[in-house]
Design brief:
Length: 137
């Protein structure tokens, strides 16, 4: 578990642009069972690829003309119950931090695992997400 003061700026990097921080399994269930909505779930983390690629790419993707209706995030290594519960909705994908999941009508329709994020640029991640937004939002 990471100290709260250490991860606060990393959490705020997404919450400051409209993401809802989910900190327990109940809040994950509340959001991920919503039907007739598009929902983005970002599994945030302290790793360098989250800071250098994932968070900037996600924020850049929100400039696209289409985007998810609901933006949520969980933090790996901190909000363990929320992350564990969110990962149940990500099956059959294995646990991955960071990662990004797009849901439409309560179903997982697009997923970026860590290996899609590592080594990719923020622009590549944003373009990947924008294509998914075009298809599902």
């Amino acid at each position: 578990m990471y100290p709260a003061e250490m991860v606060l700026p990393m959490k705020e990097d997404l919450t400051n642009v409209g993401f809802e921080q989910l900190i327990d399994s109940e809040s994950v269930d509340q959001f991920l069972t919503q039907e007739s909505r598009t929902l983005l779930v970002v599994v945030n983390s302290v790793c360098g690829c989250a800071a250098g690629n994932m968070r900037p790419g996600v924020k850049l993707s929100l400039q696209h003309s289409k985007k998810p209706e609901i933006l949520t995030t969980v933090f790996a290594g901190v909000d363990t119950d929320a992350v564990s519960q969110a990962r149940k909705y990500f099956l059959p994908y294995p646990p991955s931090s960071p990662s990004i999941a797009l849901f439409k009508d309560g179903k997982l329709v697009h997923f970026l695992e860590r290996h899609h994020i590592e080594g990719g640029s923020a622009q590549m991640i944003a373009a990947n997400l924008a294509a998914a937004y075009d298809a599902y939002c």
